[in-house]
Amino acid sequence: MKLLVCVVHNRDRNRLTDEMVKAGYKFTIIGSSGGFLREGNTTILVGVEDEKLEELKSLIQENCEQREQLVNVTPFDAGPGGGLLPSPVRVPVGGAVAFVLNVDEFARF
Asked: Is residue 28 part of a domain?
C-alpha cells in the first residue's frame, strides 16, 4: 500500500476530487498555500493499493492542468522614489505535485 500526497491548485481541486469520488477513492483534503504566488492550494492524502497507483496518477494528470498567469513583479532594488513600474511576467501555475510514500501498516476504525 502507498500514501499519495498530492498538492493541487484550488482551481483544479473540484474537478479532481469529483473524478476521484467517481472512481471510488477515499481521501482527506487539507488546505494549504503555495510559495511563490502565495495562492491557495489543496493537499490531498490518498491511501492506495500498489496496483491502483498508476491509475490514480493518470487521473490526477488528466484533471490538473498547468497554465500561465500574468504576475506583476517589482524589481528587488526598487527604491522609494525610483518610479519603476512593475512589469508583468508569465509564470506557470496549476498542475499537481504528487509524493508517493510506502505505508508499513494501515488500519480503518
From this structure: yes
* Residue matched to cell numbers 492524502: 45
Number of independent structural domains in the chain: 1
Digit-coded pLDDT (tens) for 70-95: 666 665 555 555 556 667 776 656 68
Does the residue 69 lie in any domain?
yes
108 within a domain of the structure (yes/no): no
- Report which of 38, 109, 107 is spatially closest to residue 71, judged by C-alpha positions: 38
Distances (CA, A) of 83 to 71, 75, 76: 19, 11, 13
Domain with residue 51: its CATH number is 3.30.70.120
Determine how many CB atoms are found less than 10 A away from the CB of residue 56.
21
Distance, in Å, from the CA atom of 71 to the CA atom of 87, rounded to the nearest integer, reads 8
Q: Which three cell numbers stand for residue 18?
A: 469529483
